[in-house]
Amino acid sequence: MHSHDHSHHHHDHAPKIDHLNAAFIWGIILNSAFVVIEAVYGFISGSLSLLTDAGHNLSDVASLALALLAFKLAKAKSNKDYTYGYKRSTIIVSFFNAMILIVAVGFIVYEAVIRFIHPEPVAGGTVAWVAFVGIAINGFTAWLFVKDKDTDLNVKGAYLHMAVDAIVSLGVVISGIIIYFTHLEWIDSVVSIIIGVIILTGTWNLLKDSLRLEMDGVPKDIDLKKIKAELMGANGVVDIHHMHVWALSTTENALTAHLVVSPDNMVKFDEIKHDLRHRLEHLSISHSTFEPEFSNEKCEQPDC
């Protein structure tokens, strides 16, 4: 006997796609313009930190574009070929963005080491002014996402990315001022390495989390013991085993489990099932499937 309960829980406070479309598009336009400004003035001033930050901001533009695409795909309806729709695209985008950033960090560190060994003149004043513009643009872009950052993981990622970039630009401003007054060109390389370390720190966690979800691992915010204890506390539940939890997207999780009930409670299985579904929704599980078993039956699964 099998019973499948696919609950599709939609949060009323989920971000509106029209509002996010505008935020993402503005972010893409502003950051694209800034990439051009940074690259041009980076070449003119001979600043590696400006050029490397321009490369990083270019990856930000790609990340924003991919995040917007994934967000739209996640809202697409399911079909006969993709029964869960395209929700998993959000996980793929997170992993892809992490890989791009790690490659960018490798390039930044390599160029910084070369420039540190063979320093070249840097126009500190130009570096400071251009990076100051970066603080304004990245700060404004982060503000566009601040209202919705707690409603969707991809939006929160975009917000944090822009906020960190504003801080990185502040670091470039400081290096430009130091170079302007001290003429210590090697400061530019040091700041580039610091930028690389900052990016790598955030990217490493993103890579681990996205790879975990790609491998259908249990999402890091999910506590299996807590979930089992909650389900076991429901009336009519004797035991629960063969439980699996995985991510459908960066914001939605699914669960399957064998549910052991006493024979006299089997007629109440629909009530038990709906109670469990409600409990799971409060534990960040939006899709659940249960296979009922009688308590006097022998389970043949290896983890019973």
Descriptive notes:
- Residues 219-282 form the Cation efflux protein cytoplasmic domain.
- The chain crosses the membrane at residues 20-44, 56-74, 95-114, 126-146, 158-180, 186-207.
- Keywords: Ion transport, Membrane, Transmembrane, Transmembrane helix, Transport, Zinc, Zinc transport.
- α1 runs antiparallel to α2 (48-75), α1 (17-45) packs antiparallel against α4 and α2 packs antiparallel against α3 (89-117).
- This protein has 2 domains: 17-214, Alpha-lytic protease prodomain-like (Up-down Bundle), CATH 1.20.1510; 224-294, Cation efflux protein, cytoplasmic domain (Alpha-Beta Plaits).
- The model is unreliable at 1-15 (pLDDT under 50).
- The protein has helices at residues 17-45, 48-75, 89-117, 124-146, 153-182, 186-214, 224-232, 269-281; strands at residues 237-247, 253-261, 287-294.
- It contains 8 helices and 3 strands; from the N terminus they run αααααααββαβ.
- β2, α8 (269-281) and β3 form a beta-alpha-beta unit.
- The chain has a 3-stranded mixed sheet with strand order 1-2-3, with helices on one face.
- It is mostly helical and 304 residues long.
